[in-house]
C-alpha cells in the first residue's frame, strides 16, 4: 500500500532521490538533502528518524511508483495471455532498467548491491504484495484460475529479484526474444493456472 | 559437470579457498596463494590465467561439491514427495549456509555480494544445470511427470539465488517451519507435475 506522504515529505524524498542518483547512498548526507530540499535537517530527522529510514522510504516510493505503472498495462493488451505476458515483461524490465537500479549500480555498485540484497527484504515484500494483489484481482474478475496467490507471487518476485542482480545464467534475460519465450511458456501458464496439484492435471 | 583437475590444480584451489575464507577475495593475492600451496606464481598463472579465473574456479568447485552432496539425499528419503522436499530443503539450506557464502559475507560483505550477483552467472548456470539434470533423471525413472526440465530448474535455482541474498520478504526463509511449508505446498508439486498448461488441468 502506498503510504500517505504530505508535500514536505515528498520534497525531502525528491531531494534524497536526486542526491542518491548523483553520488550514491553512502555519500549522500542529510546536510546535502536539507540544502537541496530547502527543509532543515531537524525536520528531516524528525520525519524520517535518520538517514537509513529516509533511504528506505526513497526506495519504497520508487518501488511503489514502478508498480503503479504496471496497472496501466493490464488494461491495454488484448487477450488474457497477452496481458499477463506484457505485465510480467514490464515488471522484469523495470526491475532491471529502473533509473535507481541502473544509476546506483553505476555510481556505487557494491553499495547498491548491499541495498538490493542485505537490505532488500522490504523491496521483495513490496513486490510480492503487489503481484499477489494483481493475481487476486484477476481471480476476482475470473480471468485466471483460483489458487493461493501468495506462493505464485513469491516465485515471480524472487525470479525478478534474481534476474535484476544476475540476468544471465540459464536463459539469457538480457535478450528480448529469450525473455519473451520464457515468460510465455513458463510464467503465463503459472499465473493463469497456478501449480498443478495432482497427477490428473498433467496432460503432457 | 565437474571439471577434471589434477592434484596440482587441487592444491592451488585448496590454498586459494583457504585464503579467501581468511581475508576475502580482494585481499587474496596470487603470491599468498603461491606461498600457501607451495606452487610458484608462474605455474598458478599458467594453469588459471590470472586471479579472476582462479577465483571463479574456486567458486565453481565449491558449487559442484555442494551439488554432489545433494545426490546422496535423494536415495535416503522414503516416498517421492519426501525425497523432493528433502532435496529442495538441502539446496536452499546449503546456498545460504555454505561456509564460502557465510564466511565471505562475514569477512568482506560488499565484495562477496559482487561475486554472488554481477559475477554470479556461472554459479546460477551451474545450479540450473544441476537441478535440470536431477529432474531429467527423476523423469527417466518415472518418479515425476514428463515436462521440460529447464524452465522449472531455472525457477528453483533463481528462487535459491534470491533467498541466499535476501531470505526475508514474503515467507520468512530463516524459519524452518515456514520454509518447509512453502517447499511442500509449492515446490514439491511443481517438481512432481510441472506447470499446468491448460484450463482442463485446473481442479481447484
Automatic annotation (TrEMBL), chains A, B:
Domain HTH tetR-type residues, every copy: 6-66
InterPro entries on file: Homeodomain-like_sf, HTH-type_TetR-like_transc_reg, HTH_TetR
A GO molecular function held by the record: transcription cis-regulatory region binding
Keywords associated with the record: DNA-binding
Residue range(s) of DNA binding per entry: 29-48
One family name in Pfam for this protein: TetR_N
PANTHER family xref list: HTH-TYPE TRANSCRIPTIONAL REGULATOR RUTR (PTHR30055), HTH-TYPE TRANSCRIPTIONAL REPRESSOR RV3405C (PTHR30055:SF153)
Name of the featured protein: HTH tetR-type domain-containing protein
Organism: Nocardia macrotermitis
Amino acid at each position: 500500500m502506498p503510504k500517505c506522504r504530505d508535500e514536505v515529505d515528498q520534497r525531502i524524498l525528491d531531494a534524497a532521490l536526486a542526491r542518491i542518483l548523483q553520488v550514491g547512498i553512502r555519500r549522500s548526507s542529510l546536510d546535502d538533502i536539507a540544502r537541496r530540499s530547502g527543509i532543515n535537517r531537524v525536520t528531516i530527522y524528525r520525519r524520517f528518524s535518520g538517514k537509513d529510514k529516509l533511504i528506505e522510504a526513497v526506495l519504497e516510493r520508487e518501488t511503489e511508483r514502478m508498480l503503479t505503472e504496471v496497472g496501466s498495462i493490464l488494461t491495454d493488451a488484448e487477450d488474457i495471455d497477452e496481458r499477463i505476458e506484457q505485465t510480467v515483461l514490464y515488471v522484469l524490465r523495470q526491475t532491471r532498467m529502473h533509473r535507481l537500479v541502473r544509476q546506483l549500480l553505476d555510481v556505487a555498485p557494491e553499495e547498491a548491491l548491499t541495498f538490493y540484497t542485505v537490505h532488500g527484504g522490504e523491496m521483495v515484500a513490496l513486490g510480492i504484495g503487489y503481484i499477489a494483489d494483481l493475481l487476486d484481482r484477476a481471480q476476482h474478475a475470473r480471468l485466471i484460475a483460483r489458487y493461493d496467490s501468495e506462493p505464485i507471487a513469491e516465485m515471480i518476485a524472487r525470479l525478478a529479484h534474481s534476474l535484476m542482480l544476475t540476468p544471465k545464467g540459464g536463459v539469457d534475460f538480457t535478450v528480448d526474444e529469450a525473455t519473451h519465450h520464457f515468460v510465455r511458456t513458463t510464467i503465463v501458464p503459472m499465473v493463469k493456472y497456478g501449480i498443478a496439484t495432482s497427477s490428473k492435471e498433467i496432460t503432457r
